[in-house]
Predict the structure.
Amino acid sequence: MKKKALIFGITGQDGSYLAEFLLKKKYIVHGVKRRSSSINTGRIDHIYQEPYTKKRTFILHYGDITDSLLVTRLVNEIKPDEIYNLAAQSHVQVSFESPEYTANADALGALRILEAIRFTKLENKTKYYQAGTSELFGRNEKTPQNEKANFYPASPYGVAKLYAHWITINYKEAYNIFACNGVLFNHESPRRGETFVTQKIVQGLCKIKKRKQNTLYLGNLYAKRDWGHARDYVEAMWLMLQQKKPIDLVISTGKQITVKNFVNKVARKLNIKIFWRGKGLNEKAIDKKGKVIIACDKTYYRPLEVNNLLGDSRKAKKILNWKPKVNLDDLISEMVNLEMNR
């Protein structure tokens, strides 16, 4: 009998890659998507067609992680073997502007799913994956950050995810649910949302290359991040649910660069020659004619900056036999090539 998976957040970057991955593993995949007046299924439109829909192996449901009755109903009707909670308000800057909604979706969303598993008495059947984040470490800049590092979230998003992390552990220990946290560091792809910095840089510089945009405005150029490919990271999610016992793991590449160096890599890929001038908010990148290509804008700085995130995933590599396959340069090439051909 085929395994059934239920993915909350199916229309997001990770949800779309995970759905592809599980379908190749011959799962029946159920996905939850929010009702919207505009089409929001762009990342999964290529999946939502034959042969998967004809065979009823890919099924979409309308819903929202903030609706406890719906969450419980879906879990009870589907009785999935695996649940992946990838649903969230996942933009850090937005979480400062919408802290209550962020808490409702990111913190209480996890509680709703875990409580649904308990309420429907699926503790011995359903395995649960909670999508964690490197933002849990926040202002703890002692790197590299592994499973023993202290959490110090620096945003409503990070704080909400911290609740989700600990409620997952609580339900595992209190109710013997197979529940685990994947503390995933930044992972990108051509499907990344356009408001996230990597996609913003790629799209902005591609538009500048095509002369459709003059200047790209960014925030903290010196934030250091550990960037991997989302396609690699969804495999780690799945591997975590295939273990005999639940375990919380850090998933990362173990390599980091600054936002500024990410810009440099994208510019080189596009053959855009830039020269950096100035300091702080006045720092900018110009071309050989003196035209401003990149400029800083305080609007894009966070109220609390997180400057240094670098993961140590040696434990995951040992337990899961997992390692990232796509390096940063290849990731950037994939993002740039798709954007230029869009």
Notes: The first helix runs from residue 13 to 24. Residues 146 and 312 are 5 Å apart (CA to CA). The mean pLDDT is 95.
